[in-house]
C-alpha cells in the first residue's frame, strides 16, 4: 500500500472559490486557434473592429455607397430640374424648350427609385452575410473555448442576439449613409457654388453643421445612454431567464415576488435609458431641421439680393433654393445614426468580449493525426513503469496522467498540482476528495476542455494535446456532473452520441446496459417519448442513466464519469452507482466523485485534496489507514 502524503480534511473551498472567480473573468486576448480570421486587435475601438468584420465584402459595400450616392444625387437633381422646369414654364416658352427637362425629370424619378432599391439590396445582403459570419464565429468560439460558464445565461443570450445585431446596424446605417452623403453633398455644394458663390458656401456650411457637428454632439450625448442600454438589456434578459428557469424553486421558497420585482426593476431601468436615448434622437432631428431651415432662408436671401443686383437670374434662384432644400436629405439620417453609436459601441464591446476569449484548448500542429490504437499485448497490472509513488500504469496502454498541473490564472493557486494517476485497460479507477479539491478540473483536462499548464495526459502512450480535441473526445468521453438532456425524445437524445441513423436495436442495447430499458418501455411512446425541457419529465436517476447510455453509445476507449450521483437522494444514489459501475464493466473507467458509496467495487482509488494526490490504493487498503482522509470520510 502506498504511503499517505497528508492527513486531515483540507481547506480546499477557498481555492475553489478563487478558481471560480478566475473562470468568470473573460480575458481580452485574441485567439490563436486555427481558422480565426478576425482582422483587428482587441486594443482597437470596437466600431472600427466591427467595420473590419465586413472586409471580405468590401467590394459590395463600396458598390452600395456608389448606389446610395446615385440615389440621393438623383433626388437632389430631380428637385433641381423640377425647379428649373417650373420656373421656366412660368415664362411660357415653346414646349420643345421644356422637353429635355421633362424627360430628365422622368428619368431621375425612375433612377432614384431603382438605385435606392439596388443600394438597399446590395448593402443589406452584404450586411446580413457579414452578420451570419459573425454569428458563426461566435458559436465556434463558444464551442472551442467553452466560455459559456463565464457569462450569465441571460446576458449571454443578449450578447448572441442584440449585441451581435449591432454589427448589422453599424454596417447598414452607419457606413453607407455617411459616405454617400459625403459624395452627394460635395457635388451639391460644388453645383451651388457655380450658381452663386455665397450661396454655395452657405450651403456647405449648413451641410457641415447638420452632417458633422450635430452628429458629433448627438454621439457625445448618446455615449452613456447607449452603454447603459446594452447593460440594461443584458440585465433584463438575465432576470427573465433566471426567473423562468428557477420558477419551481422560487415558488417553493416564496421568492417569486422578489424575482418578478427584479424583472420589473430591470425593465424600468431599460425604459428610462430608452427615454434618454429618444431625447437624444429628438435633439438630433430638431437641430438638423433648424439648421436646414436657417440655411434655406439664408440661401433665399442671398439669392434675392443677387437677383436684384443682376448677378443671378430668377430661374437660377429657384434652382438654387430648391437644391439647397433637397441637399439636406443627404445628411438627415446622420444624427440618428450618431446617437446610436454609443449603443452600437457598447454592443461591440460585449460581442468582442466573447470573440476575444482565449481558447482553453490550443489547436495542435497536426490536427489530422489519428490517435494510436491500444497495444494488443497490454496487461492490466498495477505496476508503475516509472516507479512513481501514488500512480499505477502499464506501459503505453490505457490512460496515464503524469505530473499534471493546472491553474486558471497566473496569480491563482494551483487547481491541480503534480497529479499522477493511471487508468489501465479494463480497470475502474475512482478519484475522490472533498469539494474544491480539483476533481472537476481533472475531468475538464481529460475531456479536452482545458490544456495542462505542465505535465501530460497520455492515451496509449500519446500526449492528447498533440491531437485534435474532437479526436480525443471520441476516445475519452463520459458523463458530466450535470448532463444536459435536450427537449426532445429519448431516441434523439441517444442518437446525439451515436449516429443520426442509429437503429433502435443499438439504442435498446445501450439502455439495457445503463439499466434504463424497463423504464423506457413503460413510457407511453417508448423511445419516442418526449422528455421535456432539460429532461424535466425524467427523475434525477433516469437522467443520469440516460446520459450514461448516451456515453456508452459513443463506444469510447476511456469512460469518464464526473459526479454521476450529484443532486440525488441517498437511495437513488446507491442504485445509480451500482448501475453505473455495472454498465462500465469492461471499459477503462475513471469515476470522479465525492461520494464513497460503492467504491468497494472499483480497482483503485485516488484521494485528491487541494490539487494533489494524498492517498492511493484499493478500497480495503485505504479503509485500513485510520489516519487517512478516506477512512475518516467513511466513518463520517
UniProtKB/TrEMBL annotation:
<dbReference type="GO" id="GO:0045454">
    <property type="term" value="P:cell redox homeostasis"/>
</dbReference>
<dbReference type="InterPro" id="IPR017871">
    <property type="entry name" value="ABC_transporter-like_CS"/>
</dbReference>
<keyword id="KW-0067">ATP-binding</keyword>
<dbReference type="GO" id="GO:0005886">
    <property type="term" value="C:plasma membrane"/>
</dbReference>
<feature type="transmembrane region" description="Helical">
    <location>
        <begin position="61"/>
        <end position="87"/>
    </location>
</feature>
<keyword id="KW-0812">Transmembrane</keyword>
<dbReference type="GO" id="GO:0016887">
    <property type="term" value="F:ATP hydrolysis activity"/>
</dbReference>
<keyword id="KW-0472">Membrane</keyword>
<dbReference type="Pfam" id="PF00005">
    <property type="entry name" value="ABC_tran"/>
</dbReference>
<dbReference type="GO" id="GO:0140359">
    <property type="term" value="F:ABC-type transporter activity"/>
</dbReference>
<dbReference type="InterPro" id="IPR003593">
    <property type="entry name" value="AAA+_ATPase"/>
</dbReference>
<dbReference type="InterPro" id="IPR011527">
    <property type="entry name" value="ABC1_TM_dom"/>
</dbReference>
<keyword id="KW-0547">Nucleotide-binding</keyword>
<feature type="transmembrane region" description="Helical">
    <location>
        <begin position="278"/>
        <end position="300"/>
    </location>
</feature>
<protein>
    <submittedName>
        <fullName>Multidrug resistance ABC transporter ATP-binding and permease protein</fullName>
    </submittedName>
</protein>
<feature type="transmembrane region" description="Helical">
    <location>
        <begin position="306"/>
        <end position="328"/>
    </location>
</feature>
<dbReference type="GO" id="GO:0005524">
    <property type="term" value="F:ATP binding"/>
</dbReference>
<dbReference type="InterPro" id="IPR003439">
    <property type="entry name" value="ABC_transporter-like_ATP-bd"/>
</dbReference>
<feature type="domain" description="ABC transporter">
    <location>
        <begin position="399"/>
        <end position="635"/>
    </location>
</feature>
<dbReference type="GO" id="GO:0034040">
    <property type="term" value="F:ATPase-coupled lipid transmembrane transporter activity"/>
</dbReference>
<feature type="transmembrane region" description="Helical">
    <location>
        <begin position="203"/>
        <end position="221"/>
    </location>
</feature>
<dbReference type="InterPro" id="IPR036640">
    <property type="entry name" value="ABC1_TM_sf"/>
</dbReference>
<dbReference type="GO" id="GO:0034775">
    <property type="term" value="P:glutathione transmembrane transport"/>
</dbReference>
<feature type="region of interest" description="Disordered">
    <location>
        <begin position="19"/>
        <end position="41"/>
    </location>
</feature>
<feature type="transmembrane region" description="Helical">
    <location>
        <begin position="93"/>
        <end position="110"/>
    </location>
</feature>
<feature type="region of interest" description="Disordered">
    <location>
        <begin position="362"/>
        <end position="398"/>
    </location>
</feature>
<dbReference type="InterPro" id="IPR039421">
    <property type="entry name" value="Type_1_exporter"/>
</dbReference>
<keyword id="KW-1133">Transmembrane helix</keyword>
<feature type="compositionally biased region" description="Low complexity">
    <location>
        <begin position="19"/>
        <end position="28"/>
    </location>
</feature>
<dbReference type="InterPro" id="IPR027417">
    <property type="entry name" value="P-loop_NTPase"/>
</dbReference>
<dbReference type="InterPro" id="IPR014223">
    <property type="entry name" value="ABC_CydC/D"/>
</dbReference>
<dbReference type="Pfam" id="PF00664">
    <property type="entry name" value="ABC_membrane"/>
</dbReference>
<feature type="transmembrane region" description="Helical">
    <location>
        <begin position="179"/>
        <end position="197"/>
    </location>
</feature>
<feature type="domain" description="ABC transmembrane type-1">
    <location>
        <begin position="62"/>
        <end position="343"/>
    </location>
</feature>
